[in-house]
Write a structure and sequence with these properties.
Layout: E1 2-8, E2 12-17, E3 22-28, H1 30-38, E4 44-50, H2 56-64, E5 67-74, E6 80-86, E7 93-99, E8 117-122, H3 127-136, E9 142-146, H4 149-154, H5 156-163, E10 168-172, H6 173-179, H7 185-193, E11 199-203, E12 209-213, E13 216-220, H8 234-249, H9 258-279, H10 293-307
Bound molecules: adenosine monophosphate (AMP).
Residues 10, 12, 14, 28-30, 82, 98, 124-125, 232-236 line the site of adenosine monophosphate.
């Protein structure tokens, strides 16, 4: 087992519209955002599929970030193409089209050299394919799962099967409530933990993220940014930064105590939130292509400042 990160998900071309502007054919996809963020901290191996229309410059960009793209298959046909529009608050969005192209026949093949990767991020794809990935990897130290409402609606049973085989689930508020409806998020998270997960991290867009585990709960804010240009990929960038940090920090190895792993996850959530705060400041991956540890440190520092205070003293 090594300390590399395996990421399996979509590699896409996106058309994005906001109340102010519109851009087409941008580099996107859950695996792309996740890989670029994770590559800040660890070696990254990506698995996905592209069509013959996928610009070579995008592959070069991934390579320059240090991402190993041997597992990106090229097929005759069109690359997965997604179109979304953000509303005035930049949190709500409408999907205008999802053209699967070569993604429709995607069958993840994990190259032999990736199978010893210690950290696995199953980004949002069909849960049947996520199971196929888990069948091909050896014995990762940590597996993280992401999903979306579509799979909860049409493949709930298979998704639950995947959940039972991973360590942690990344999910947004609406999806958690769709899986286990409850007026209490803690209740939905508790039911997810009962399926055998070590932890559930609920992503809340511009309100940050909250982790639930048997060790307790922890919340990280999202930095209040003045200029949000394109929130696409914020969740995947958060998770990429998080798993990259976990792989690189050396606290999740063999024999790590639950308290050690929990502390590493808390730190990783700050790192993920710092990475996500950059991605939304420009379209596509433009802002995270030039990320550095100094920039990440600066925002982690701002996040600390936002959540720290002196101990509360009560009179009795
Ligand atoms: P997020 O903003 O975190 O939801 O992720 C946005 C990215 O997910 C975009 O770059 C899209 O290309 C990609 N995406 C959108 N719909 C799907 C889907 N059904 N399956 C996989 N990836 C998708």
């Amino acid at each position: 087992m090594n300390d590399r990160v395996l990421i399996v998900g979509s590699v896409a071309l996106d058309d994005i519209k906001t109340p102010w502007t519109e851009e087409k054919n941008l580099l996107g996809g859950s695996a792309v955002y996740g890989s670029i963020a994770a590559s800040q901290f660890a070696g990254v191996d990506i698995v996905g599929v592209i069509g013959d229309d996928f610009p070579a410059e995008h592959l070069d960009l991934l390579k320059r970030s240090g991402v190993n793209i041997d597992g990106v298959e090229s097929q005759a046909g069109k690359t997965f193409h997604w179109g979304g529009e953000y509303h005035q608050n930049m949190n709500d969005r409408t999907t205008h089209f999802t053209e699967l192209g070569v993604f429709a026949e995607f069958m993840p093949k994990i190259p032999a050299s990736y199978r010893e990767d210690g950290f696995v991020f199953l980004a949002n794809i069909d849960p049947d394919l996520q199971l196929k990935v888990l069948d091909q990897v050896k014995k990762p130290r940590l597996t993280l799962l992401d999903t979306m409402n579509l799979w909860i609606n049409i493949k709930r049973e298979t998704l639950v099967e995947v959940i039972k085989r991973v360590d942690a689930l990344m999910i947004n508020e609406e999806e958690a409530n769709l899986l286990f409806p409850s007026p209490s998020q803690a209740d939905s998270a508790g039911k997810l933990l009962d399926l055998g997960l070590g932890r559930v991290i609920i992503k809340k867009g511009s309100n940050g993220a909250q982790m639930f585990s048997r060790e307790g709960t922890f919340a990280v804010p999202a930095l209040p940014l003045k200029d949000v240009k394109d929130p696409t990929g914020a969740g995947d960038t958060f998770t990429g930064g998080l798993i990259g940090y976990l792989a690189g920090c050396g606290r999740c190895g063999e024999g790590a105590s639950p308290a050690d792993v929990d502390m590493a996850f808390r730190q990783a959530m700050l790192v993920g939130s710092a990475c996500a705060s950059y991605v939304v400041e420009d379209f596509s991956t433009r802002r995270i292509n030039t990320l550095t540890h100094d920039k990440i440190k600066e925002r982690v520092g701002q996040l600390y400042a936002a959540i720290q205070c002196e101990p509360v003293k009560l009179k009795k």
